[in-house]
Amino acid sequence: xLTRRDVLALPALGLLASDFVCSPVSAADARLGPPKTLxxxxxxxxxKSKEAWEARRKQLREQLLVATGLxxxxxxxxxxxxxxxxxxKGEYTIEKVFFASTPGHYVCGNxxxxxxxxxxxxxxxxxxxxxxxxxxxxxxxxxxxxxxxxVKSGGEPDPDRGRYFMQALPATLAxxxxxxxxxxxxxxxxxxxxxxxxxFADVAAELRLQSAMGLQTWxxxxxxxxxSSLPDVDAKKLGMTGASxxxxxxxxxxxxxxxxxxxxxxxxxxxGMQGGCVCENCSLLRVNTGNVEIAALFAPKPLGMSAANDWxxxxxxxxxxxxxxxxxxxxxxDKVAAKAWPEYxxxxxxxxxxxxxxxxxxxxxxxxxxxKEPAFTPVTPTKELSVFxxxxxxxxxEVNAARLREWMTQDxxxxxxQLAPKNADGLAEYKRVVSTAxxxxxxxxxxxxxxxxxxxxxxxxxxxxxxETVALSHKGEKDxxxxxxxxxxxxxxxxxxxxHPEGKASIIDKGKVTPAAxxxxxxxxxxxxxxxxxxxxxxxPKPFAVDKTFAGYTYGYNRSVLANxxxxxxLAIAYVKSKKDTKKIHLVGWGEFGVxxxxxxxxxxxxxxxxxxxxxQFRFEDIKDPADPMMLPGAVKxxxxxxxxxxxxxxxxxxxxxxGTGTGQLSxxxxxxxxxxxxxxRNAAKLDAVKAxxxxxx
Length: 698
Hints:
It comes from Frigoriglobus tundricola. This protein is α/β, with parallel strands linked by helices. Helices cover 33% and strands 18% of the residues. The longest helix has 19 residues, at 401-419.
């Protein structure tokens, strides 16, 4: 940190106050360029130690749960499945199944069971099969022409498997002794009440983290509940497979549900394209991560993968070696396997299926052998596999997306109401849940260390105030945050991190300290003012582009503007904290940046002594445009601004201009639960520098 002595020792630099108005470092901030998309590169760097990975694994798993709307997990109602219409196929049977994963939303599928297990006296391994984005899902019929082409290319052995590989896979597994549940993706085959990829693309869904991806993930969890509950299934020997979008479902469930013992995602794990459908994307999901790292969460359990001549074709050199390094940390290198068939296009053909059969036999049955898939006789898909008929019509309580979202919202509201802190223990649990969610929404926390700061300039002004500008960066990120530091003649080691929409221009105007900044400097407070993303010397050359069809395509890979600003504020706080001459750190947020201050204080904890924030009469609930710079996916789900203000308890906080923000009840309850009701002060007026200074120094 610059001291007055440092400045006096640098007269030869000839720097002027005007040097601080515009910084050339802004062009180096990668966030000012186009947002990352699902088609970019997502490398996975193997961790250096098992301990480092376990810490990362915990945080990443929480990220996936929050992103999919499953943090905390919704209550699981009894499934009460309907199982009927067994079709005798000789060595196995095919049954029709449907059950409600949530009230009024039904998961449908077919259950393939080996013959000869009456009454569940023999427990068999169970396998979930997710069909992916092939037309009509489990009803898929590729047609005579496509089936013949698959046979001609060598991808399939005969026309039946060329046309009906969706049936060949579970049929073979059942013949080998596995119980298989093949279930519908949302909006496919029999599960059509909510159209595929529809119903969740509006701002309200983003603010509540309601998504097709989240619903699909929840259905997968409930499908595993169903499979594991069957009397003939060994709940300790559960596997899952699927290709393409089904591969996404596979590695997602493997990452989130500890009950899976073996997994085989086909043609999906890649450092390339991450999944092109709405059902494979949602906000927050892949910010600073990617599919290979998500698949890695399954380590050290057996993970097999196949690749083809598609976005997965480089898996053997990009992704698989790093996964091997990770598994080697656990002494389990033999439990991860991958193979590419570059001569075939995007498909789950017989070669990949046979690799999968052997993988499941080895790791779920203890049989180390190769498998040649037998020929089979398919059934007529829609006519014979559909779960609904005259005796089993569609349930009368089946709901559409709008009604389903009403239930999701009410269920979430009930959960958050139960979490509302009433005592110290309740506050601790509230903070565990909501602070974790906020960390994921911002995709940052107070950095333990930062990249080496770059000093841009330093000077001693005619007023006697010392100034410097530095550029700060998170370790491992390509951000550059210009910060202006001002030390008055009465500097005491008490530093205010000053967050303002105008950035450095709010404290230095035409080479002079502004009146508002002077008020604080004259009390002995020093100032550090970061140009948060999009402000001051860090402005966007073009507005931040948000995908107009589905914001999850943008916020699934990039922090929102607000989240970036909070991350920048945390970076500035960490920088001040790292300096030996810092005694106390205060935080002041002006205008809309008062919200940034509250969120940063909630994540920084007691590193901050006092916080002053202008709430600017802001409510997340009022956001209507996904490109709004105040957008924060998930904010409303967890209670809005009041919920994040509650996380600041028992820290000293003064909020201004809070009328209409809805922050009162929850934040008061948190401060009362902390025994610190007097530490939260409210002032209906707009933030005033004089009053802020008086409050900070008293």
